[in-house]
Amino acid sequence: MNIYVGNLSLETTEDELRKEFTEFGEVISVTIMNDKYIGSGQPRGYGYVEMASKSEGATAIANLEGKKLRDRVVTVVAALPLSDKGRTVSLNIRSRQLNKKRERRDIVN
């Protein structure tokens, strides 16, 4: 189960986050997002924790939502699934003159 953790202090480390979640089950991975695209590497204040099972993840969410970590109240929720790469989605766009059907491709970085 993939879990979103928001409102993290910029000083929070992946090891600290792993320690908090390990109390509730097996942690597969921890990623704190950063600004690698502009080159600063500055943490963004949110991250993702992947847990081995859905039940362990649900227990972690229930116990950690609203908890203070480094003097910040964190948001802990089940993360939305990633979209499939290369998936084609049909969009029906109405214009005043005629109906057009367009396709777009989801772009996943």
What is shown here, in short?
The chain has 109 residues and is α+β, with helices and mostly antiparallel strands.
Give keywords:
2 helices, globular, 18% helix, two-stranded antiparallel ribbon, four-stranded antiparallel sheet, 109 residues, Alpha-Beta Plaits, single chain, alpha+beta
Describe the fold and architecture.
The protein is of the alpha+beta class. It has helices spanning 14-22, 54-64; strands spanning 2-6, 27-34, 43-51, 68-69, 72-73, 75-78, 88-94, 99-105. It has a single domain (2-78), classed as Alpha-Beta Plaits (2-Layer Sandwich), CATH 3.30.70.330. The strands form three sheets. It has a four-stranded antiparallel beta sheet, covered by helices on one side. A two-stranded antiparallel ribbon has the order 4-5. Strands 7-8 form a two-stranded antiparallel sheet. The model is unreliable at 88-100 (pLDDT under 50).
> Structural class of the helices, strands and pairings?
alpha+beta
As a percent range, the share of strand residues is 35-45%
Tell me the total number of β-strands.
8
**Beginning-to-end CA distance, first to last residue:** 21 Å
CATH architecture: 2-Layer Sandwich
- Taken from the alpha-carbon principal axes, the silhouette is globular
- Helical fraction: 10-25%
User: Number of domains in the coordinates?
Assistant: 1
Q: Can you say what the CATH homologous superfamily is?
A: RRM (RNA recognition motif) domain
Low-confidence stretches: 88-100
What number is the mean pLDDT?
82
Number of helices: 2
Q: Main β-sheet, in a few words?
A: 4 strands, antiparallel
**Rg on CA atoms, Å:** 18 Å
